[in-house]
Amino acid sequence: MNYWIKRAAILCVSVALCSLISHGAIRWLGIKHGHSGYQPYGGNGTKPTAILYCSSLGYDGIDWGRVSEVLQGTIESWATPGSSPSEWEADDRRSAGVAQTFIAVSPPDMNEYILCDTRAEIVPLGMAIRDLWNSDVDWELSKRILGQYPLMVVRALFPTVGRSDGVLVGIRAKLGALRGGPANADVGDAPKFGSTAASEITEKVSDWSPGRLQRRMVLMHEACQSKYSFNGPKALALRRLLRRAASQGQVTMAVMPVSPFYQEEFLSPHVKEEFERVLVKLQNEYPQIKLIRLDSISTLDDNKMYYDLVHLNMYGQKIASAVFLDRMREYTGPQRVLSPSNTTILSKK
Asked: What is the pLDDT of residue 96?
């Protein structure tokens, strides 16, 4: 009896120590593992008049502070790193009286094979099962999505589980700081939610070394298993979100660009064609939605405008924000699809 009590005690102490180390590592390395941080723009604390749904591509790509100034009101949002329509819909917390909705999407956001790290904490299991049942996705992707739910339970004790990329990048940054280098060197493609809407990131992916670019490409391939699909739970969630938003007021959806490096590696002609079909189908289903194609701005088709493979830097944000505001002002007539072939781009250097 004493033998088993000792074994149980040793096991409990070992688990407790490992859990403490795991929690400590998350804090020390600064790995983002939470979700739904409230992010308001403009208004000086006034009641929100608009709501924003997007991933870090949308937060970094458009100066929402400037947009709020044009609207003369507060834009509310809940920022979740790596989020997608599945998380936006499930975490919808629209305040009373909010009648305007902004949504920003991109091919990475809509790719069913790129999963939000905290998806299981936001999307109820029942909803995930129903969407998988009603989607045309393979069994491997279904297993990945459903496997996030037991992983969520394990992470309550060991938050570093499944976050090896963040751990390795964090350790590299700490070692670089000890050697006198920048503390955030090669931080990867993790979202960088700033305290202000205007970006201050001047880094350019065009300045990356071949080794760093290759590392990020490999990690991107691992994240999506080198696959692209736009017909699954994310597509269903976006349709439901658009339907709900359209019934409550005006909806503006921006399509965000990605770097030429990313396009050449992941967006084949077939993938681009499938993405265009998705956008046309959404516009046909919800013709009242204002669709703004920032991905067709020629000046943003330059690696110098991005601080990593998918996020616009300060220079890219200025151009995208100017065009976005111009398009908002132009929308006074019937709604139409703004595709790369029929959109006149007004960019500012």
From this structure: 84
**Other CB atoms within 10 A of residue 160 CB:** 20
Identity at 317, one-letter amino acid code: Q
The pLDDT > 90 percentage for the chain reads 57
Tokens of 30: 């600064």
Is residue 287 within 8 Å of 138, Cβ to Cβ? no
Report the pLDDT averaged over residues 271-295: 94
What are the Cα distances from residue 280, in Å, to 21, 106, 143, 187? Answer: 49, 14, 30, 36
Report which residue type is found at 76. Answer: E
**Distance between CA atoms of 270 and 276, rounded to whole angstroms?**
10
Q: What is residue 19's predicted lDDT score, i.e. its pLDDT?
A: 86
Average pLDDT over residues 326-345: 54
CA 318 to chain centre: 19
The arithmetic mean of pLDDT across residues 26-51, rounded, is 79
Of 331, 231, 237, 256, nearest to 289 (Cα)? Answer: 331
- In degrees, rounded to 5, the angle at the alpha carbon of residue 186 between the alpha carbons of residues 180 and 188 is 150
Helices assigned H by DSSP within the chain: 2-29, 56-61, 64-71, 85-90, 107-110, 119-122, 125-133, 139-155, 164-178, 210-224, 233-246, 260-266, 269-285, 314-330
DSSP string, 236-303: HHHHHHHHHHHTTSEEEEEE----HHHHHHH--HHHHHHHHHHHHHHHHH-TTSEEEEGGG-GGGSSG
* The two three-digit tokens of residue 313, written as one number: 């830097």
Instruction: Give the integer Cα–Cα distance in Å for 289 and 287.
Output: 5
Q: What mean pLDDT comes out for the span 283-289?
A: 92
304 CB neighbour count, 10 Å cutoff: 15
Count CB neighbours of 111 within 10 A.
21
Q: Does domain 31-330 have CATH number 2.60.40.10?
A: no
- Which candidate, 288, 283, 300, places its Cα nearest to that of 338? 283
Name the burial class of residue 331, with classes exposed (0-12), middle (13-18) and buried (19+) by CB atoms within 10 angstroms of its CB: middle
Q: Single out the residue of 246, 241, 234, 236 nearest to residue 92, CA to CA.
A: 241
Q: Side chain identity at 133, as an amino acid letter?
A: W
